[in-house]
Amino acid sequence: MLVVIAIIGVLIALLLPAVQQAREAARRMACSNNKKQIGLALHNYHDTHLRFPPGAISGHVTCTASGQPLGGGTDECNQVFAPWTVLILAFMEEAPLHDKFDFTKIFSPYSDTCTSVNKTWQFQPLKKFQCPSDPLSDNETPTLNYLACQGGGDPTVFDSTLNAACSGSSTPTRAFYTNGMFYNNSKTRFADVTDGMTNTIMVGEGQYHFLLGAHTTATTRQSSWASGELPNSPYASPITLCAAGNSINSAPQIASSIQLAEASSIFGSRHPGGCHFTLGDASVHFFSENMDLAVYRALGRRGDGLPTGGWN
Questions:
Q1: pLDDT in tens, 263-286
Q2: How many domains does the chain have?
Q3: A Pfam family name for this chain (predicted)?
């Protein structure tokens, strides 16, 4: 009897990794399909409006010479409007949800800031924007795993000519870019992507979510898939956008606003070895976390003219 039990235990131990791998393969396939549908929705939006949706809609942002935000207080909430994720809902078979939002009103960046009639729907989870491999996708949180690409480049170098907003950090770490397809108040057209749609990142995966405190466990302040971009704030962050800055799946520091800046330049996922990217032609590819950093950053930019051959 003991021998039989031991044999069964060994068989289970041998089969369990295979079962887990099969489940991850299914989740990865579902994630890839989510990314494909988002890419098609963005193209359909362009067909209708003759441009892609802005990455975010917000008021003018003023920065100091070192990249620090000016302003603050409750007036910040008068400048925060719909992000790209909400603007494409009608092209994702989510027209009823799209119609529930009031686009003349603000879209609160976080769950505990900026009173708005849109909050009722902003902080309801939407599975189409969540990766099945992310544990948070199972507990009814309104997280976002698919981030539009705002550009590419070294995030440790602050360059005011490439920033649409302030770094939001105590150091001049770049959190906002404008050399990609989607950024604050962007109006990108096919013709503006001079590097070619097959050589430019449109949407990538993200695995870091803004939560108050250590930004990993607290739930008193939370962003969502429908969060607006908060300008002129010490915690300025694009929220629904990211950049090809740091290596794929690298980890940000766990420290207040510094992490916000770093997380805004890290695409990543819970998939082993890399993450999915939707390119400008709506094709979906899995990029290795070990891919050449210079090539990766160039793919984040829409028109730098640099060669990216061999990345795939």
A1: 677 899 989 999 999 999 999 999
A2: 1
A3: SBP_bac_10
Reported as type and span, the H/E element at residue 3 is helix 2-49
CB-based contacts of 70, cutoff 8 Å, min separation 6: 62, 63, 64, 166, 232
Does residue 199 lie within any of the structural domains? Answer: yes
* Structure tokens belonging to residue 179: 């050399």
Q: Whose CA is closest to 101, among 127, 73, 126?
A: 126
**Residue 242 near residue 143 (C-beta atoms within 8 A):** no
Q: Is residue 4 part of a domain?
A: no
Tell me if 244 is assigned to some domain: yes
Closest by alpha carbon to 233, among 150, 165, 174?
Answer: 165
User: How far is Cα 125 from Cα 137, in angstroms, rounded to an integer?
Assistant: 8
Tokens of 258: 């510094």
Instruction: Give domain status of residue 14, yes or no.
Output: no
Reduced DSSP (H G I as helix, E B as strand, rest coil) percent helix, strand, coil of the chain, to 5: 30, 10, 55
**Size of the chain, expressed as the number of residues it contains:** 312
pTM of the complete model:
0.83
